[in-house]
Write a structure and sequence with these properties.
Elements (H helix, E strand, L loop, with lengths): L2 E4 L2 E5 L4 H6 L1 H6 L1 H7 L5 H6 L2 H6 L7 H7 L3 E6 L2 E6 L4 E3 L2 E2 L6 E7 L7 E7 L9 E10 L2 E10 L6 E2 L1 H7 L6 H13 L11 H22 L2
Helix pairs in contact: 7-8, 8-9
């Protein structure tokens, strides 16, 4: 449990709570998307008890940290009887409630590089009511140079059996200025990979459309924060 800077990385103990992410000066300064997104998770009672490691290890596509961890290019430190091993966030999730964790392993830490100076970020989440899982959500992390996107990460929550990285959406942005056309192209590319489960929050068509809306909002907000 706990948050520290070590060897140029932010290290988050798996038992760190959502409230601790919100209040951590280290997270606020170096990975502010986590602090901001944690405020949108569940309710105060859950945030005071629920942990980042539990959110990730559970493998629920409706949880927020799987997509967030991919957006920040996190690595997970897993420990079992044979020692520790490192698994990138992108390689950790196999399906709904299916992860790279072995039965005799636990997650002990989450590692990620601090955002570079001038990085823009956003986590846009649509939910029916306070405390609910996302109907659709998008994390966006952008780096820009003279108005042109140099690097992009776009990830999606609760829009498939696992969190998704929308690589085609990223490609639609990199090398281009942010405008209505590039934002729409990125949203369309993200919508193309969505395969959400139908439930009380909506059918496939509605959730996919909302994914596009969240992608647009996240890109716009992230771009506005780029320095």
């Amino acid at each position: 449990r706990g948050i520290r800077l070590e060897n140029g990385e932010v290290v988050i103990g798996a038992m760190t709570t959502e409230t601790e992410l919100i209040n951590s000066p280290i997270i606020q300064q170096h990975l502010p998307i986590l602090s901001e997104a944690a405020k949108l998770i569940a309710d105060p009672q859950v945030r005071n008890r629920g942990t980042i490691g539990g959110d990730i290890a559970h493998g629920d596509p409706g949880n927020d940290h799987p997509a967030l961890s991919m957006a920040i290019e996190a690595n997970f430190i897993l420990q079992g009887p044979n020692g520790k091993r490192t698994v990138p966030a992108e390689a950790f999730f196999f399906g709904t409630y299916m992860t790279a964790l072995e039965e005799n392993e636990v997650m002990v830490e989450i590692h990620a590089k601090p955002f570079a100076a001038g990085t823009g970020y956003a986590y846009e989440k649509l939910k029916r009511k306070t405390g609910d899982w996302a109907t659709a959500a998008c994390a966006a992390v952008l780096e820009m140079d003279h108005g042109v996107v140099r690097r992009a990460r776009i990830t999606l929550t609760n829009l498939a059996p696992t969190a998704l990285r929308a690589e085609a959406a990223e490609a639609a942005l990199v090398g281009h200025h942010i405008n209505d056309a590039t934002i729409s192209a990125a949203a369309d590319a993200a919508m193309a990979i969505c395969d959400p489960a139908e439930d009380l929050r909506g059918d496939l068509e509605y959730k996919t459309a909302m994914a596009g809306a969240m992608v647009k909002r996240a890109i716009q907000k992230a771009a506005s924060r780029c320095a």
